[in-house]
Amino acid sequence: KEKEEEEDDVEDEDEDEDEDEEHDVVEIPENWKELSLHDREKKIIQRAAALMSWGLLLIIGFSDPMVDVMFEMGSRMNIKSFYVAFVLAPIASNASEVMSAYMYGSRKTVLGTTTACETLVGAAIMNNTFVLSVFLMVVVAKGLKWEYTSETISILIIEAIMFFYTQKQSQRMLDAVCIVSLYPLAMGLVAFLENVVGLN
Q1: What gap in Å lies between CA 60 and CA 92, rounded to an integer?
Q2: In sequence order, what are the residues at sequence separation of 6 or more whose Cβ sits closer than 8 angstroms to the Cβ of residue 78?
Q3: pTM of the predicted structure, to 2 decimals
Q4: Which of 48, 139, 154, 188 places its Cα 20 to 30 Å from the Cα of 160?
Q5: What pLDDT digit, counting tens, does each position of 110-119 carry?
Q6: Quick check: 23 and 107 in contact, CB under 8 A?
Q7: What is the rounded distance in angstroms from the CA atom of residue 113 to the CA atom of residue 28?
């Protein structure tokens, strides 16, 4: 009886793996299917390069005006521009990662959910470490006045909390609620450090 149960478990795992593989089949355009593997890879590289170039042009064209708009919104509402950017900028800059994670997560498979979580963690690491280091280099190179102590402390604390969650083998709904609550918590922590503690 135990052997039968083990065989059933193995069969269930195989079925789950088969479902993951079916969901993760990459769809290619009809006119590419008859191409050789080498020509198909060449087409994929060309298309990826074209899309990345187009995205780069969009970033160059819209990033500076978007910063100006956020600064003006903060000035008109008598709100520090950081808080406006903290709410609006991630929606614009991380929209692709959010949509990608949603598409993977909507498959409701182990592989899809894992990929969705890895996508979001990767975006967070890119934003909070690499981009922050670039910002620090700009501050040093241009000799800018440092006025971001509270924001940096908030980022580091949230990263430390997220490190704990990324070490967990499984995620529950309560974990999701706690992770989402880190977003307003980070903004509240910045306000506390600036207005109560007195950091710049």
Answers
A1: 14
A2: none
A3: 0.60
A4: 139
A5: 788 788 878 8
A6: yes
A7: 23
